[in-house]
DNA sequence: CACATTGATAGACAAAGGTTATCAACCGAG
DNA sequence: CTCGGTTGATAACCTTTGTCTATCAATGTG
């Protein structure tokens, strides 16, 4: 049995007339006759009772008609679903991300992506860079978001820069420093500085320490909080300042402003890279990177 | 796209290897290659990523695999369903019956039929004989159960005798007449006789009147009740006797016994006929008549 | 490096679907 | 009742296409 048999059968059942059905199908009536007969032989059941003046369905034919319609409909559905998946408009995408760094930028980007591709189910998987590359290799994630220059990537991966941004000083809008267009890192030596730490050695807190250390700036001990949310709350309340990508927003928004850092240096420029397995990029993954790059433009810069 | 493409695709997806899949399908590997390629072209989506050492599914392929399996399963299901319907093991059967006459006999017969053909949905449609024949003609019912000799049927119908039984006198088991092996109709002239009447002119009550009248027997007025249930209750309670097919049982059972009628005559012999449209007999209908006939034997006679 | 394995390709062949021409059966109008 | 006009079935021919064998390039393995 082939789908052709089902298509022909449904056409005959719909017109109750071989000749008209053959016309609709753009085949000759004998061809149709033969196919229906073959179908009946294959099933071992008569589907139509032939009278001059047309045909009527047997009970077996009526039963088979329902199912045949259903099958054809499902084939149609399967086709469009496969095409949608091919085009990256449907499917599942697991994105590995670095918790703190990407969070502020990713939230609106994900929203934009979901709006454009509602049939895609995106899952976020936060993990350190090394774990992400391993996850990429075995196919547990399709896209990894990491920081740092592309040159540092092992071979076998392709990448695209999703975001390149100078980091900035985050202060409450009522803060004394908020009145200044730009701020020197030196000036933070007397400020209360807050950083995120998960207890590890490579978190936000440690990264800020490194920035100060590279310039020989002595500073007050950096207060550590356990999450970005807490940090934003502290900064928004004027209880401290921090150094962040200027995309991070507090919940209530508008209470935090970013100010340019007067110093320069590669370590003040953050590259957010989308990474995927070389040659293993699905259209879905490409669409995702596309949307991320578009968001970079829309969100603007400091 | 044909079912062949789906079958081949599923086979490849299951083995992840063209050669082994081709083996399972009993076709050559190039034939399989071509069909898969045709499928991919038809879908406009790549289904496999070919590596030496085997193939892996693309996301589109994974999506399509689920649906393809589903489609093939449904085709399988549709086939068995059509075959079951053809064989009369599944489907819908509407049986027209004469309320009073067939009720007692039909209940156990229906139970037997449902037990043997659980996938068949039987509907009972009670109506007078003339309505039943009309319903048969237009296909509203597939089988009609009527009384009387087959000769009285209009042409265009076939029939089979499902039951031929002498009617009998129904009395309560404690009734004086219950002690007798057979009873003359004459003896009922002094009894309280009960009959079913729906107000029409062709009911059970009128039929009994006719039996008495044909033999010139004067009798006390026949008490009319509006249903078989009521009649059985009255008889079981010893408040009267009646003339019935000896298949009728009261709810509680055992309290009513049937006694042979001493007189003879064609009007004491009831024929229950199954009637169907000539040539329009489905296997389902034949099975139904078959079961009914078998029940006749099992239920025995007076 | 030789060898075995993978899937893809080319050409030949046969099965099978499609076409045209024609048939018997039936219905309805004249 | 006969005569078109309809129904679906059949036969013979043609064309498409699914399949086969033989072979290839690419890749992994001893």
Describe the fold and architecture.
The structure is a homodimer of 302-residue chains. In chain A, the strands form four sheets. Chain A has a five-stranded mixed β-sheet, sandwiched between helices. A four-stranded mixed β-sheet of chain A has the order 8-12-7-11. Chain A has a two-stranded antiparallel ribbon with strand order 1-2. Chain A has helices at residues 3-15, 18-25, 29-43, 59-86, 99-116, 129-138, 204-214, 228-236, 283-299, and strands spanning 48-51, 54-57, 90-97, 119-126, 143-147, 157-166, 168-172, 182-183, 194-196, 223-225, 242-244, 256-261, 269-277. The longest helix of chain A is centred in the first third of the chain and has 28 residues, at 59-86. Chain A is an alpha/beta fold and 302 residues long. In chain A, helix 5 packs across helix 9 (283-299). In chain A, strand 1 and strand 2 form a beta hairpin. Helix content of chain A is 43%, strand content 23%. Chain A binds chain B through residues 1-4, 43-47, 58-64, 67-68, 70-71, 74-75, 77-79, 81-83, 85-86, 90-92, 282, 284, and chain B through 1-4, 43-47, 58-64, 67-68, 70-71, 74-75, 77-79, 81-83, 85-86, 90-92, 282, 284. Chain A binds a DNA duplex (30 and 30 nucleotides) through residues 4, 17-19, 27-31, 33-35, 37, 50-55.
């Amino acid at each position: 049995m082939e789908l052709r048999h089902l298509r022909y059968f449904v056409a005959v059942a719909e017109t109750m007339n071989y000749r008209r059905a053959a016309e609709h199908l753009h085949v000759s009536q004998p061809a149709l006759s033969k196919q229906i007969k073959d179908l009946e032989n294959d099933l071992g059941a008569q589907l139509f009772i032939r009278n001059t003046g047309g045909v009527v369905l047997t009970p077996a034919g009526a039963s088979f008609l329902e199912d045949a319609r259903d099958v054809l409909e499902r084939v149609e559905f399967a086709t469009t679903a496969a095409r949608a998946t091919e085009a990256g408009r449907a499917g599942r995408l697991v994105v590995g991300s670095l918790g703190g760094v990407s969070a502020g930028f990713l939230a609106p980007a994900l929203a934009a992506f979901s709006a454009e591709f509602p049939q895609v189910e995106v899952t976020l998987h936060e993990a350190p860079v090394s774990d992400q590359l391993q996850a990429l290799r075995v196919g547990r994630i399709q896209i990894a978001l990491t920081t740092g220059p592309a040159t540092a990537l092992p071979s076998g991966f392709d990448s695209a820069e999703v975001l390149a941004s100078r980091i900035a000083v985050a202060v409450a809008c009522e803060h004394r420093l908020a009145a200044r267009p730009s701020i020197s890192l030196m000036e933070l030596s007397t400020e209360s500085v807050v950083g995120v730490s998960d207890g590890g050695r490579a978190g936000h807190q440690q990264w800020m320490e490194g920035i100060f250390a590279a310039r020989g700036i002595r500073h007050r001990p950096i207060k550590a909080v356990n999450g970005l949310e807490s940090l934003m709350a502290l900064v928004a309340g004027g209880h401290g300042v921090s150094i962040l990508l200027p995309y991070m927003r507090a919940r209530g928004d508008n209470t935090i402003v970013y100010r340019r850092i007067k110093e320069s240096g590669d370590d003040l420029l953050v590259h957010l890279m989308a990474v995927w397995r070389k040659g293993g990029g699905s259209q879905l993954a490409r669409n995702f990177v596309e949307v991320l790059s578009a968001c970079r433009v829309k969100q603007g810069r400091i």
